[in-house]
Protein 1
Amino acid sequence: MTYSQPGVPAARKLGAEEFDFGVVHDRSQFGSAKWANQWDEFSPRVEGEGLVSLWTADMDFRAPEPVIARLREAVNHGIYGYTKRDPRHYEIVKSWFERRHNWGVDQATLLPAPAIMPSVAAILRTFTQPRDGVIVQAPVYSPYFQVVRDNNRTLLINRLRLVEGGYELDLNDFERLAANGARAFLLCNPHNPAGKAWTREELESLDSLCERYGILVISDDIHCDIRLNDRPHVVFSSIGEGAAAKSFICTAPTKTFNLAGVPSATLSIADSKRREELFRVMQASFMVNANFFGRIALEVAYTSGDQWLDHLTRYIRDNVNLVLSRAAESLPGISPMRPDASFLVWLDAREVDAKVGGVHRFFVERAGVNLYDGRVYGPGGEGFIRLNVGCPRSVLEEALARMASALSSL
Ligand SMILES: Cc1ncc(COP(=O)(O)O)c(C=O)c1O
C-alpha cells in the first residue's frame, strides 16, 4: 500500500548511493552525545583522546533519503508551528506493522506518544501505585531501573539465565516475584543489550504468569525492526486476547531509521478503558502534541523506508559477522552473543574484566575505544560490554583492531 497524502512522498525506488553506509560522517558539529562520550551536562564524561565511540544506541548513518528530503523541505519552509496528526498518520503506522511484522494492529488501539520512556513512565504512574512492584529482566537497558525507582515503584529484578552463551527466561524466579507484589512487568522485546527476540512460546509462558497474578505488561518494541535472522518479531499483544487485554505496546521508528533526535512514538492499547485513561493522563501532562519534525520523519520513514531498512539490515548483519569472526581470531577472552535483532552486540568479557580490573576502562585507556560498560545494565552485566555496530565498517574495523592490539599486550 502506498500513500500520496500531501506531505508524505510516495515510496520510490532509491539509487545505490542512498544506501552507502560506509561513508564516515563527522557528527561533532551537531552535538552528538555518542561522539562527545557524554550523555548530557549532568553525566560524567568518558575522557580520552581520539576515542572510537561505539557505546550509546544511535547509528552513524544518514536517515533514508526521502526522510531527509522531506525534513529539508520543512526546514526550508521556515515555519515550525504546531502540527497535527491526521487519520492517515495511524494508517501509516498500521500499514508498517502489517507489512514488516505481520501484526494486524487495530488502528483504534493506537495512541500518539512523544517517545518510549516518557510513555513507560506515564503508564507506570497511571496504572500502578507508589511502592507497587515492577518486574524488569536484567541485564537490561538501564533507564528501566530509573523509571521504576524514580517514580517511587519497587524494582523487582528477574535475572535472565546465561545458558551456553545465550539468555533464557527464569520463569521460577519470575513467578516468585509475581507472587510478591508485582503489579507490572516491563518487557524488552527484542531484549537490549543482547538483541534477543523472544519467541511466541517464551511470551506465552510470561503471559500465563502475568494472567495468573494480575500483572500488566508494558512491552518496549523499539528494537523490533532490524531483523538479523529469520526469527520473526512476535508482538506480545498478538499472542492472544488475554495478552492484548493486559498489555501496552510501545513502538517507535527512532532506532530503526536513526531518528532519536526527532522522536515520535506510537502506543497500542487494546483495552479501551485503559487507553482512554492513559490518554487523559498524557493530555494532562501535555504529552500528546506532535513534534513538528518527529511527525514528518515517522510518516515518511514508515512509508518510504522499507528498501533502506532492508539494505541497512544486510549491512548490520555483515558488521555483526565481522565482530564474531574477529573475536574468534584476535580477541582472546571476548565472546560475542549473536543478536537476533538490533544493531547491538553483547560481549562476554568476564575473563578480561577479571584480569584487568574493569574491561570498559581497559578498552578506553589502552585501545581508545568507548563501549558501553555492562555494569550499567544491572545484575548479570558485570564483565560484559555492549558494542554498537551501527557504524561504517571501517570504523568498526579500526575499533576491533585497536581492541585486538590492546589485548595482545596482556
Ligand atoms: C530498549 C530501549 N528502549 C527505549 C529506548 C529509548 O527510547 P526513547 O528515546 O524513545 O525514550 C532505548 C534507547 O536506547 C532502548 O534501547
Note: The domain at 74-304 is CATH 3.40.640.10 (Aspartate Aminotransferase; domain 2).
Protein 2
Amino acid sequence: MVRSFGAGLWGLTPVGQRTRRKLLRHLRAVMSEVDGQEVHLPGLQYRDRWEQSGRWESFENEMFTLRNRDGQELCLAPSHEEGMVHLVDGRVRSYDDLPVLVYQIATKFRDDRPRNGLVRSKEFTMKDAYSFHASESSLGATYRRIREAYLRLFDDLGLTVAVVEADNSVMGGSRSEEFVAPVENGSHRLRFCRDCRFGVSDEHGDLERFEGGDDCPECGGTLTASEAIEVGHIFELGTRYSERMGLTVDLRDGSSRDVLMGSYGIGVERLLQTIAQQHADTDGLSWPVTGWGSIAPFRAAIVPIGDDESVRETAETLYARCGPDDVLLFDGDRSPGERFAESDLLGIPVKLILGNQFRETGNVELEFRDGQTDYATPGDVPEIVSRFAAGRSGG
Ligand SMILES: [Zn+2]
C-alpha cells in the first residue's frame, strides 16, 4: 500500500491511493453535512503574514523555510490559519456574513523527526477546516457540531478514538481537544474509556493519575492502557489570529470586534494508518465494515478457478454487476492459493470464489475476511457485496 521515499516521506501504490480516495470522498461528504465550503490555498507562503501572527518564530524548528531567487523568504506551510484569515479578510464585513466554515484538503509540510512510519511524515495530507464567528456562542456551537461530526466519521470508518483535552500552545487560543486512536505501536501513551471516549495522554493531561483498569472519572467505566496516535485536533482559537492580523467584523449595534476563530484538523494518512493498524491480523490488512460501508480498496475480489467457459462468463458478469471500478478480478495464471493470500493481505472484505462448488451447484462461494463462508446465486451476489462499498452507494 505504501512505499518509503526516505525518512518521513511516503508514496502510495495504486491500491493505497484507492483507499485514500474513498476516505477523501467521505471527508468531503462529512464537511458538506456541516455546511463547510471547500477552498484551496497555496502551500508556499511569504514570511510577512507569519510575522504578523507571530508564528514564524514559534514554528521555527518544525517549518521548512526557503528563499526565492529575489531573496524573499517563504515557508512551506505547516498549517493555514494565517492564509485563511487572508482569504476571508475583506469578504467578511458584517456579523450578518458570519459564521463561515471553510476547509481544504491539502499537502502540509513539517520538518519533524520521523517516528513510526506515516505518523511523523515531513509531507502529509490534512483536511483542515477553519470557522469564523461574531460571538463566543456561535464559535462554541460550531466547535461542538464539528466535534460530533468527526466522532461520527470515526465511527463510520470503524476507528476507535478517545478524546483528550489538550493545552493550546502553538495554535494559541482557549479550548482544544485531540482525537487519539489507540494502537499497538504508537507515538503517545494513552489511558482511555471505551464507553464514553474519555482519554488522557502523555502529551496532554496527567497520565500518571490513571492506570489501566482504573475507573473512568467521567462515566465509571473501565480505563484501558494503550499506545496511541493522534488523528485529529480541534481548537477554539478565539481572537488570537484576528487580533494580530486585523480581522474585524461590524456588529449589530454599530461597534466592531475581532473575529473569533476555530480550527479543526484531521490527518488523512494518519487516519488510514491507524484504521489499518487497529484491524490488521496475521494474514494482513482487514479493513473494517460498518453500517456506513468500508474504505477497503476493493469491495470484493473475484477468484475464478479453472478456465472453463461457465466460470469465465460468470466471473465477467459478476465483475460488471458488482461495480467494475470497485472489484478486483484475478486473472493470469497464479495459483488460487496466491490469489486468496493477496486478497487477504489487501484486506478485501470478501472473496467470490468460482470453483468446484460453482460447477456442482451453480452457487458462488463467498469467503469473508473474518473467515466466515456463505453461498449465493450469482444474481444475489451484487446486493450482498454492496454493503462493502464506501458509503454503500459509492464506488
Ligand atoms: Zn468513561
Note: The first helix runs from residue 14 to 33.
